[in-house]
From TrEMBL:
<comment type="similarity">
    <text>Belongs to the NAD(P)H dehydrogenase (quinone) family.</text>
</comment>
<keyword id="KW-0560">Oxidoreductase</keyword>
<protein>
    <submittedName>
        <fullName>Dehydrogenase</fullName>
    </submittedName>
</protein>
<dbReference type="Pfam" id="PF02525">
    <property type="entry name" value="Flavodoxin_2"/>
</dbReference>
<dbReference type="InterPro" id="IPR029039">
    <property type="entry name" value="Flavoprotein-like_sf"/>
</dbReference>
<dbReference type="InterPro" id="IPR003680">
    <property type="entry name" value="Flavodoxin_fold"/>
</dbReference>
<feature type="domain" description="Flavodoxin-like fold">
    <location>
        <begin position="1"/>
        <end position="213"/>
    </location>
</feature>
<dbReference type="InterPro" id="IPR051545">
    <property type="entry name" value="NAD(P)H_dehydrogenase_qn"/>
</dbReference>
<dbReference type="GO" id="GO:0003955">
    <property type="term" value="F:NAD(P)H dehydrogenase (quinone) activity"/>
</dbReference>
<dbReference type="GO" id="GO:0005829">
    <property type="term" value="C:cytosol"/>
</dbReference>
Length: 266
């Protein structure tokens, strides 16, 4: 299978650098084809601006979404953007690897999303009407592909547990896993998270690699997170609220996961 690994760390001799090397080797020795986007190594341009298009739609005002659509539809995108979109289309699975910085991804990776996820490619796809609000959240250009976050965090696992001060890890990663990965169609696998990075020594590193190896070996067989698709009946459209007869009265991020309990209710 084809696997794209997007790596966002400024230092190759870091824990993230070592885990990236391990992952590439493991995947290749299992027979997969791997492409690496090492964002710092590529000196990836992280900001969206008018240089992202070779032919402007308007020279009076730079409207990010309209310029993005114009460039995507007419072949006017800068080459670095097109190359990354081609890698995404090539991939059967994409791994996003990064250290948790301020409860999110490093800016360089966010900038990769902002620029590569063009209008017409990752958003603005499909019919937009009062009965079908675009091909997104389970449908879209990247449907049929798998994605997984590979994240390192200085905090302890308990800090990200069900009652941890940071909130549960899957709640914290929801904007990335649901908003960035599920939105354009990816099936999203549970994240691989290394906690308490400061206490890593050689023996712990070996254990982390064992666990990571198992996750990589099951990249194409593990169950994805059961996010509810937008257009399969669970949501009222165009309000985009969960139907009132599903998990009645409940709120919060977890209602967007389908489960045994609510299936019985339907
Ligand atoms: P490194 O610093 O490279 O290494 C970590 C440890 O692993 C070191 O002890 C090192 O000796 C050891 N190590 C490295 N490579 C190996 C190897 N091959 N074998 C054995 N041991 C090895 N954390 C949070 O939890 N939440 C946050 O919101 C958050 N925000 C942050 C914001 C910023 C700006 C920064 C700088 C850090 C933040 N952190 C946060 C901590 C951050 O997540 C960790 O520092 C990061 O994940 C560690 O990954 P690294 O690759 O940089 O590790």
């Amino acid at each position: 299978m084809n696997i794209l690994l997007i790596h966002a760390h400024p230092e190759s001799r870091s824990l993230n650098g070592a885990l990236k090397d391990f992952a590439v080797q493991r995947l290749q020795s299992a027979g997969h084809h791997v492409q690496l986007s090492d964002l710092y190594g590529m000196q990836w341009k992280a900001i969206v601006d008018a240089a992202d298009t070779t032919q402007r739609l308007s020279t009076t005002r730079f409207d990010v979404a309209m310029e993005s659509r114009h460039a995507f539809e007419n072949g006017f995108q800068s080459e670095d953007i097109t190359r990354e979109q081609e890698k995404l289309l090539w991939a059967d699975a994409v791994i996003f690897q990064f250290p948790l910085w301020w409860y999110s991804m490093p800016a360089i990776l966010k900038g990769w999303i902002d620029r590569v996820y063009a209008f017409g490619f990752a958003y603005g796809v499909g019919e937009h009407s009062v009965t079908h609000w675009g091909d997104r959240f389970g449908e879209g250009t990247l449907a049929g592909k798998r994605a997984m976050l590979m994240v390192t965090a200085g905090g302890w696992e308990s800090h990200y547990g069900p009652r941890g001060i940071n909130g549960p890890i899957n709640d914290m990663l929801y904007p990335i896993q649901h908003g960035i990965l599920f939105y354009p169609g990816f099936d999203v696998l549970p994240p691989f998270v290394v906690y308490r990075t400061g206490s890593t020594d050689e023996s712990r590193f070996a254990r982390i690699c064992d666990e990571l190896g198992q996750r990589l070996d099951t990249l194409f067989s593990a169950d994805p997170i059961a996010f509810r698709p937008q257009n399969k009946g669970d949501y009222d459209i165009p309000a985009l609220t969960l139907r009132s007869d599903i998990l009645p009265g409940q709120t919060g991020l977890s209602i967007h996961l389908s489960g045994r309990n609510d299936r019985n209710l339907k």
